[in-house]
Amino acid sequence: GYTVAIVGRPNVGKSTLFNRLIEQRKAIVDDESGVTRDRQYGMAEWAGKTFNVVDTGGFVHNSDDIFEKEIRKQVKIAIDEADAIIFMVDVAVGITDLDDAMANLLRVSKKPVFLAVNKVDNSQRALEATEFYSLGFDEIYTLSSISGTGTGELLDAVVANIPDELETESKETKHIPKLAIIGQPNVGKSSLLNALLGQERTIVSNVAGTTRDTIHTHYNLFNKECILIDTAGIRKKNTEKDDLEFYSVIRAINAMDEADVCLLLIDAQNGMNAQDVALFSLATRKGKGIVVVVNKWDLMEKNTNTARDYEKKLKEKMAPFTDVPILFISALEKTRLLKVLDTGIEVFENKQQKISTSKLNDVMLKAVEAYHAPVVRGRAVKIKYVTQLPTVVPSFAFFTNFPDDIKMPYKNYLENQLRKHFNFRGVPIRIFFRKK
Ligand code: GDP
């Protein structure tokens, strides 16, 4: 994956641009605390290229009297972790000391930096924006992140740097399942990895060019073969404790991008909190297989229904994608650890499967017969034919006379039927309607 970080002092408009780029609901609400917090990362698509966007401002205290130290931290993390940086300033305020300080740090970095001058809403402002050439970058991109003007030019420049295909894997080599161990700090990622590997960890490859901070380990024991991708135990020198969240989020995204299946660890005692849900839905949107692994199960007081009730609560958070394996383990006591690999590999196989068109039509046209799509404006919607597309994320095209007339509830019905008749446990699937 390619990661673009947005940096800038508070109130220049970073989150407005961010939300425009990811075009998604901005806030994630933390159920436990009732606090609404800003989303800090998401996916964007422009000119056929997909990339991760991180709003580093979302991690630091967003006040006007922000310390320069915080800013330095933000910039350092962006430089360390991102492939490109959008540096945002505010034309209405002009160049401030903080802008200057950030520009100095960014200019010496080796990453591409795009200077975005925000709040350029009229021609007067456009004139004033030229002042920002003095910050020493070759180009300035003027924009109004509220109205969206100028963002296209900025994005054109950003995506021009993204290599066409990061994935170069040859089709002939046997594809070994790649399982990423992801989760928040202290959920037990290192403990799980160490328990699985003994003490030994053989570094097989750091996939060139795609990432900096993931470790790939070839696991081949007990008849199970996979590549474990992890970010556990990687600490930057001088990383302060409160920087941990920054790094861990960005690393989780990198690990995710490289994997077929994500093993999402959560801490049994904390349950699935907003950050876990955010990782879960990001993995879903990236089309990755998912296994939810509830660790530290040894610490839970258990009676007969504990696991069942726990699972029910988790599924409420995961909805609508609930056809996902959930495992209860203890990395400490080494219980059910091999089950984690088994399940990960099984999800990988579910994800790889190609269903023959005849079998698919056999089953799905019956499902369509049993429950027809609702009639829209007096026109009967007919589905004639279904086929699986040759994509990495299992995708199905339903050919129909009126593609636009088929709405969400019916799409969900078809997805449920697919899941009922074929095994896509742990795998996001996509459904398209095409004109016959
Ligand atoms: P990471 O940051 O996700 O890599 O988490 P660690 O593996 O470093 O674990 C964080 C803490 O949780 C450590 O003190 C571990 O000993 C503890 N821990 C990890 N797994 C378990 C578990 O299954 N049960 C219990 N009781 N503690 C665990």
Structural summary, described in words:
- The protein is an alpha/beta fold.
- The two termini are 35 Å apart.
- Helix 2 runs parallel beside helix 3 and helix 11 packs across helix 12 (408-421).
- It has a seven-stranded mixed sheet with strand order 10-11-12-9-13-14-15, with helices on both faces. It has a six-stranded mixed sheet with strand order 4-5-1-6-7-8, with helices on both faces. The chain has a three-stranded mixed sheet with strand order 16-17-18.
- The protein is globular and about 65 Å long.
- It is 33% helix and 22% strand.
- It has twelve helices and 18 strands.
- Bound molecules: guanosine-5'-diphosphate.
- Guanosine-5'-diphosphate is lined by residues 183, 185-191, 232, 295-296, 298-299, 330-332.
Short description:
The protein is α/β, with parallel strands linked by helices. The chain is built from 12 helices and 18 strands. The two termini are 35 Å apart.
